[in-house]
């Protein structure tokens, strides 16, 4: 006796996987937008660090100018009588230079404010038990990448839905002899690896910026014989933060390339399968 064939809900299944395919395509667009946002924030942070370095340089230049003025005023000592006014002026300049007092405190404060837009850890003074909250452009860039590639991320959803759509796209998931699966798996692996690398560089830049902001708001504004040394440390921190930001931006650009490659692979698979493209209401072959 023949076993009756159970009719499968073909239309419902087709609707389900087409929905998953649409989610996959939209997820890649979301990842691209998040990566682009991260790049924009890093660029803005890079600009702020450069502007802050310029302001700090103004204070250093002012110190060098005063030092040169002192030596210029005393250059002819012993060759001709020096007017009392010149001696007084030179003495004041020498006292200012040797005191370790900030020459352009306003520029240093402005630099500190700029650096704080890059990265800062805010502590709620009214709630000491509350966890310190990182803020700033680099913190936001890290959040963008975390949403795109972290645990429970958009990228994880994209990978899952592509996997479930594999049979309908004629892609043999897990089979590296399948060229589409091979390309997709390599591209996703590269995107995740580069995103992790970018986050490491962003974190490195963030902590250098944090150190720079603390110096700009404390030691570099206090009259002290060691102030010039602190100013040098501040400049080094800004330089390192800028270099790390550059490396982060380069990594993020490569993440964007990897995501674009994933998108191309997806739509190439859709085209090869002759099914409606999720980005268009009509089949792409019409």
Structure description:
The chain is an all-alpha fold. It has a domain at 35-55 and 105-273. Helix content is 72%, strand content 2%. The protein contains seven helices and two strands. The protein has helices spanning 10-73, 84-99, 105-118, 137-149, 154-165, 179-217, 227-273; strands spanning 120-122, 133-135. It has a two-stranded antiparallel sheet with strand order 1-2. Helix 1 (10-73) runs antiparallel to helix 5 and helix 6 packs antiparallel against helix 7. The chain is elongated and about 75 Å long. It starts with 9 loop residues before the first helix and ends in a 13-residue tail after the last helix. 34% of the residues are buried. Residues 1-14 and 281-286 have low confidence and may be disordered.
Structural category is mainly alpha
Largest sheet: 2 strands, antiparallel
Order of helices and strands: HHHEEHHHH
Give the end-to-end Cα distance, rounded to a whole number of Å: 46 Å
Q: What is the radius of gyration computed over CA atoms, rounded to a whole number of angstroms?
A: 30 Å
Which term fits the overall shape? elongated
The strands making up the biggest β-sheet line up spatially as 1-2
List keywords for this structure.
disordered C terminus, disordered N terminus, 286 residues, 2 strands, two-stranded antiparallel sheet, mainly alpha
Could you outline the blueprint of secondary structure elements for this entry?
Layout: H1 10-73, H2 84-99, H3 105-118, E1 120-122, E2 133-135, H4 137-149, H5 154-165, H6 179-217, H7 227-273
Antiparallel strand pairs: 1-2
Helix pairs in contact: 1-2, 1-3, 1-4, 1-5, 1-7, 3-6, 4-6, 6-7
């Amino acid at each position: 006796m023949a076993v009756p064939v159970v009719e499968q809900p073909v239309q419902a299944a087709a609707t389900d996987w087409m929905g998953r395919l649409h989610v996959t395509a939209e997820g890649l667009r979301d990842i691209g937008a998040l990566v682009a946002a991260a790049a924009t924030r890093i660029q803005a942070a890079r600009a702020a660090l450069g502007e802050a370095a310029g302001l700090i340089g103004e204070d250093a230049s002012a110190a060098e100018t005063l030092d040169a003025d002192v030596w210029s005023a005393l250059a002819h000592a012993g060759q001709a009588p020096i007017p009392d006014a010149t001696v007084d002026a030179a003495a004041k300049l020498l006292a200012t230079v040797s005191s370790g007092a900030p020459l352009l405190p306003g520029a240093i404060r402005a630099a500190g404010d700029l650096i704080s837009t890059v990265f800062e850890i805010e502590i709620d003074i009214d709630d000491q038990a509350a966890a310190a909250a990182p803020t700033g452009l680099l913190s936001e860039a890290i959040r963008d990448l975390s949403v795109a590639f972290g645990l429970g991320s958009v990228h994880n959803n994209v990978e899952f839905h592509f996997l479930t759509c594999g049979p309908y796209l004629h892609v043999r998931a897990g089979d590296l002899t399948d060229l589409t699966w091979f390309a997709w798996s390599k591209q996703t692996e590269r995107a995740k690896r580069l995103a992790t690398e970018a986050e490491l560089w962003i974190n490195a830049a963030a902590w250098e910026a944090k150190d720079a902001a603390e110096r700009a708001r404390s030691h570099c504004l206090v009259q002290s014989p060691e102030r010039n040394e602190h100013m040098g440390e501040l400049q080094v921190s800004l330089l390192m933060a800028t270099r790390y930001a550059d490396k982060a931006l380069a990594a993020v650009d490569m993440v964007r390339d990897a995501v674009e490659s994933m998108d191309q692979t997806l739509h190439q698979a859709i085209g090869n399968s002759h099914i409606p493209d999720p980005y268009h209401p009509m089949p792409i072959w019409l």
